[in-house]
Design brief:
By secondary structure, this protein is α/β, with parallel strands linked by helices. It is built from eleven helices and eight strands. Helix 10 links the parallel strand 7 and strand 8. Helix 1 packs parallel to helix 2, helix 1 packs parallel to helix 11 and helix 7 crosses helix 8. The structure holds phosphoenolpyruvate.
Length: about 250
Amino acid sequence: MRRPIIAGNWKMNKTVEEALLFFNELKDLVGGVDDREIIVAPPFISLFSAFNVTKNSNIHLAAQNIYWEKKGAFTGEIAPAMIKDVGCGYVIIGHSERRQFFFENDEMVNKKIKSALEEGITSILCVGESLADREKKLTLSVVGTQISSGLKEVLAEDMEGIVVAYEPIWAIGTGMTASAEQAEEVHLHIRETLNQLYKKEVADSVRILYGGSVKPDNINELMAKPNIDGALVGGAGLDAKSFAKIVLFK
Ligand code: PEP
């Protein structure tokens, strides 16, 4: 049985004070939930305070990005050990906004994943096609390549430290969600790709999240699909009540 994950990605939103209000509210709303993993990725600057509020709770923290070097002259970057130090067990890697606005490619994504693994941090590897890719029927090949390149040289025994998030770019922040059927088709392809790269046992154990305009009113339909193991939530994860409703899917 794969334990579902509901993860919230705040992107570049909320001050430290706003973050603390959110975490205190969320703790009350989801306290005692232990059959699913709850993860929130605030901006770096809020992680330390968020850790103090969440450390004895069922809410886990993720960073939204890392750099692959351990330390040194890399102005503006954050190393894996630094996010671990402020309580992050997870990091989002290769979000489409990082690929699009900060020119991250599969090779950089792969380096980041390997550096997170070295530190014992689980990567949430984001993959997904553009609208143009979908229209050209390239969805499965684009996503398959992102998976195999992102996981290059990642060993089967390290796959426990990998979660995949399928996020069609055309569905992110647009209100246009992929239908549960569209998402399931790609999730199944991702699992088949993992099966080819590793073995069935590994492919069956990796959690594959869907992201792209997930809301309280579409989460149940998505979670009913056999290969959808959770959600990566942007906009609807900024409000504690709406995020809690997604966490509490049936
Ligand atoms: C995201 O940023 O990962 C995301 C899925 O955003 P939204 O839920 O707002 O579409």
